[in-house]
Design goal:
Number of strands of chain A: 9
Oligomer: homodimer
Number of helices of chain A: 11
Number of domains of chain A: 2
Low-confidence stretches of chain A: none
Mean pLDDT of chain A: 94
Largest interface: A-B, 90 and 90 residues
Strand content of chain A: 5-15%
Largest sheet of chain A: 6 strands, parallel
Structural class of chain A: alpha/beta
Radius of gyration of chain A: 21 Å
Order of helices and strands of chain A: EHEHEHEHEHEEEHEHHHHH
Chain lengths: 296, 296
């Protein structure tokens, strides 16, 4: 039986895009005990310098080709909008044993592009660590960002089975809990629990109008993600359109049901609806903190 | 010119309901330099004992009449559902100079009930400090809960002008920023920035289904308020029905507009919509933290 990859066996890890996720990845790799040379690849020297100053990477380059050459693992952490260009730029310079993954928030289109462009030039499997925040800079990077976070791994029929195992082992080494889904399953699930909440947060901010003066901490929490990068979220909605539309329709149905209960003045049904939501969320919180073995 | 009340002149303050808000109020009164005797009034001895153990109040009683007698100020912090009963129980025992306020999250119905029941028996003005969380117990009470928080004061034509000044001064002494609105204005504003977000948070939890396994920190923030007390929120929706319905309709219009943009694949409009929301929220955060003179 084949021994799954250990993070300690990696000698050179290239991270393309060293913002919050890429920077945290560099820090987490070192914190996990890897001695690999961490190469940061970016488009702006200033971002790369910042990543160096936070010790998120060991060396940096603006040249994708130089950066990925001889890497055992390449993790693409760029915005979705440029990810195909990155795959194209790196493809000719990868070794056939090189593992490649990415951290894009939508998977069907990204995985399709990666498989088309990288083909047999490397061993690609898509990933989506469910971590991060509305911040995007390496200044907010943390070595423990992936600790106890979920990470969806999205293999396809074209994925090399050993590569899937290795990518799972990699995320596990960083403390994440891997889940295996197809890219389409991933996109449907994330449309509900990530993309829809983002749309709703933005809508709540936009309709607040003058009343925003009277908004309190609850509003701050509910709308926090609306402070996320608009270009990044444009690409997320653009690359997961059908699932996002279905999630929006489902929300409309739920809110209409709620509206009828409010309109009817049916206190019992109103409380039952709210109590169900409370119970589901509290159970989710309980599981989440149990996984993290920390208190809320 | 009349001198506005100073919190240091109050000798006896009765707090009816010593949960998160009532308990925080007791702590904040002491922290503001008041030497007033703080009387906690409640329906369960265990809650009162807990409030005593947190030094939120100086003495406790299950008897509303005993508790409010000789008080200079009574603050009603009970759930909306029992607030009329509380007004009725205390009315015969108040002195005509006694200031009375409450902290209910909806105001039109509550203020109407207070004015009807208390009449000239005391000097009542409604309040709504925009503070708190999804927690309701005194265990989460904090002396600084009202620091730099907004507090809407809702006088009517029947309010005694000096009482309004005194209630404003009281909240200011606790560090809050008072806003004056009519009860109806308050209810319309809060329907948008508080009640609607609650409904949406609950809907997002309920429609997540199995996908909740893949939910991350963003989902946690967006839905936090759905962990709030269902009975409390039932009463909020029940006592602010019209404004809540209008806010729900407005959200539907906003999300439909967003849906059309997503469906059309109009990247530019999509980004503009998200960027507008980001800008509005970031400006709100900036002002909020400027008021608090702390960093986000």
């Amino acid at each position: 039986m084949r021994k799954t990859l250990s993070i300690r066996e990696l000698n050179r890890i290239a991270i393309v895009g060293v913002g919050l996720l890429g920077g945290s990845l560099g820090m987490a790799i070192r914190a996990a005990g890897s001695q690999a040379r961490r190469v940061g690849i970016g488009r702006r020297q200033s971002s790369l310098d910042l990543a160096m100053s936070y010790d998120a990477v060991d060396e940096v380059t603006l040249d994708v080709a130089c950066g990925v050459r001889q890497a055992d693992l390449v993790v693409v952490c760029t915005p979705i909008g440029v990810i195909e260009d990155v795959f194209r730029a790196m493809a000719p310079h990868l070794g056939p044993e090189c593992l490649v993954t990415d951290v894009a928030s939508t998977k069907a289109k990204v995985v399709r592009a990666a498989e088309r462009i990288l083909g047999r030039k490397a061993r690609y499997v898509g990933s989506h660590p469910i971590a991060g925040s509305e911040k995007t800079s390496v200044e907010f990077a943390r070595a423990d960002l992936f600790q106890a976070a979920g990470c969806v791994i999205t293999p396809t029929k074209r994925s090399h089975p050993e590569a899937v195992e290795d990518i799972v082992a990699f995320w596990r080494a960083l403390g994440a809990h891997p889940h295996i889904l197809t890219p389409a399953e991933h996109d449907r699930a994330l449309a509900r629990v990530s993309h829809l909440p983002h749309a709703v947060a933005a809508a709540l901010v936009l309709l607040a109008g003058e009343a925003i003066r009277y908004a309190g901490p609850g509003f701050g929490d509910t709308t926090r993600i609306a402070s996320g990068d608009p270009a990044l979220w444009r690409d997320i909605f653009a690359t997961n359109r059908q699932a996002a539309l279905r999630a929006l329709d489902e929300l409309e149905r739920h809110l209409r049901r709620f509206r009828r209960v409010v309109e009817a003045g049916d206190g019992q049904a109103l409380e039952a609806w709210l109590a169900k939501a409370q119970a589901v969320r509290d159970e989710w919180v309980r599981r989440r903190y149990a996984e993290r073995e920390i208190q809320p």
